Amino acid sequence: MHPVLADLITLLRLERIEDNIFRGESRDIGSPQVFGGQVLGQALSAAQLTVEGRVAHSLHAYFLRRGDINAPIVYEVDRARDGGSFSSRRVVAIQHGRPILNLAASFQVAEEGLEHAAAMPDVPGPGGLEDVTRAAEGKLDRIPMMMRRFLTDARPFEFRPVEPPEFDQPKPRPPVKHVWIRAVDRLPDDRALHQNLLAYVSDYELLGASTLPHGLSFTRGNVIMASLDHALWFHREFRIDEWLLYSMDSPTATGARGFARGQFFTADGRLIASSSQEGLVRVVNPDTVRPRSDPKAQD
């Protein structure tokens, strides 16, 4: 298996400290704090480790504080309920004695029911599209270091945007975007693992849809973005080592917050998951912004 993907799988497989308590490590992907998708994936993994014979169908999370890349994260699971068909779990991710994320997840026994689903958008398939890394060639010197590392470091996923990304001088456009996503190597037949990886990758790209009508450029340092919450619903079984279309839109932005929605489709058009997220989107004067380098200092 590709070593970067294997490392991510190891990251999502937590260490059991005792009943209902688990510990995870972090990886630096170029940001000053732990990537939110990592904490989502690990929190879901912690919940899964306390459930048998049921599959996750939804999760709802709040990001409370920035995570410290250099410190382990402890996940405490509350087995809130085990009913006849559904199980509920509450998970708190803790660093330096304080919660950094609260997550609620629900699991269900497999059963048959009504079937309908939205149609996949009519967009080009991944075959003729460039990976986002190639799209950035020749522009790296104008891209912030955080994004530059994301574009140049080895990654566990391929990202092929349908709409060509504008890194340095974006123009206002409708708040809609589509990205084809696939793991860089074949994965085991483990449904829980594929769900963990989808939770991880669902935090990429989503909030950025709320900036598109405003032509904001990250290269100018005049926008601050941070996820506030995240929800994810698993509708059907899927493989994340096969192409998935992430279709995103942002119906509104107000009060220094952007709201975005996403849908994941297989290449043959099946809707397999939906997401939503609200986040801080604050336009600032780059000359007055001071970096907050210590994650432990943020409330």
Q: How would you sum up this structure, described in words?
A:
The protein has 299 residues and is an alpha+beta fold. The protein has a single domain (3-110, 125-292), classed as Porin (Beta Barrel). The chain contains five helices and twelve strands. The protein has helices at 3-12, 36-48, 132-135, 145-152, 191-201, and strands at residues 15-18, 21-24, 55-63, 73-82, 86-95, 98-108, 157-161, 176-183, 223-234, 244-254, 257-266, 271-283. The chain has a twelve-stranded antiparallel beta sheet with strand order 1-2-4-5-6-3-9-12-11-10-8-7, covered by helices on one side. β11 and β12 form a beta hairpin. α2 (36-48) runs antiparallel to α5 (191-201). The radius of gyration is 19 Å and the shape is globular. The protein starts with a helix and ends in a 16-residue tail after the last strand.
Q: Which features does this protein show?
A:
globular, 299 residues, Porin, alpha+beta, 12-stranded antiparallel sheet
Order of helices and strands: HEEHEEEEHHEEHEEEE
E-strand count: 12
Strand order of the largest sheet: 1-2-4-5-6-3-9-12-11-10-8-7
Which CATH class is shown? Mainly Beta
The main β sheet shows up as: 12 strands, antiparallel
Residues in helices, as a percent range: 10-25%
CATH architecture: Beta Barrel
List the helices and strands and how they pair.
Elements: H1 3-12, E1 15-18, E2 21-24, H2 36-48, E3 55-63, E4 73-82, E5 86-95, E6 98-108, H3 132-135, H4 145-152, E7 157-161, E8 176-183, H5 191-201, E9 223-234, E10 244-254, E11 257-266, E12 271-283
Helix pairs in contact: 2-5
